[in-house]
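=== Given protein ===
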Amino acid sequence: MNKSELIKAVAEKGGLSMKVAKEVVHTFFDAHIDAILEDERIEIRGFGSFVNKKYDSYTGRNPKTGEKIHVPEKKLPFFKVGKELKFRVDLEDD
């Protein structure tokens, strides 16, 4: 599902116009992006949580040349699936 399909689903299930549904979806994502940028943890019960993970710097290798390179420390968003969603997905395999 992409963003436009999500907007359509919100409009249909919520009985909203496409314009209002688009604003709702954009507001939802904007709020989550702002929270991630502020290093806040986002938890949506039954779905999962988003946190920033910090990775230390390390010495890596260029795969083409084998030359050692310094990889600086970095932060990346990380998603951990919730128990309920994990359980429901597992049931779908049966």
